[in-house]
Amino acid sequence: MKLVSLIFIFVLTIFIYIKFFKTTEVEVLSNKEINSQSYNSNIITDVEYISQDLKGNIYKINAKKSEIDKENTNILFLTDVNAILELVDYDDIKIKADFGKYNIIKNENIF
């Protein structure tokens, strides 16, 4: 009985120490570091987006650079864009533009 009590007290002491007295290190970043990190992480180079609608039309967009909009992550700003629309019953449509805007949810494009 004494051994069980000692083990219980020992376990309880360890639990209390871990729960209330153990400290963890927290890294604090300045606003400048946070802005620098988030800005650098939203640019992608040499990208390709491909989608297909229910009719079987295929949309391919290639860009040298794609930047994610900070306010709406579904919007991408594209640079040096080449797009091909492979339509089922029509000729392919090729588009070349210096800049473009692409909504990845709605598949809407502005060139």
Task: Write structural notes for this entry.
- It is a single chain.
- The protein has one domain (2-110): lipopolysaccharide transport protein A fold.
- Helix content is 27%, strand content 42%.
- The chain has two helices and five strands.
- The chain has helices at residues 2-21, 31-40; strands at 43-52, 58-68, 75-86, 93-103, 108-110.
- A five-stranded antiparallel sheet has the order 1-2-3-4-5, with no helix packed on it.
- Strand 3 and strand 4 form a beta hairpin.
- The longest helix is centred in the N-terminal third of the chain and has 20 residues, at 2-21.
Given as residue ranges, the uncertain stretches (5+ residues, pLDDT < 50) are 32-41
Q: Could you describe the largest sheet, including whether it forms a barrel?
A: 5 strands, antiparallel
* Spatial strand order of the main sheet: 1-2-3-4-5
Q: How many separate helices?
A: 2
Helix content: 25-40%
What's the CATH architecture name?
A: Sandwich
Which series of helices and strands comes N to C? Answer: HHEEEEE
- Pairing-aware structural class of the strands and helices? alpha+beta
Strand coverage percent: 35-45%
CATH topology: lipopolysaccharide transport protein A fold
Question: What's this entry about, in short?
Answer:
Helices cover 27% and strands 42% of the residues. By secondary structure, it is of the alpha+beta class.
Give the tags.
alpha+beta, lipopolysaccharide transport protein A fold, 5-stranded antiparallel β-sheet, 111 residues
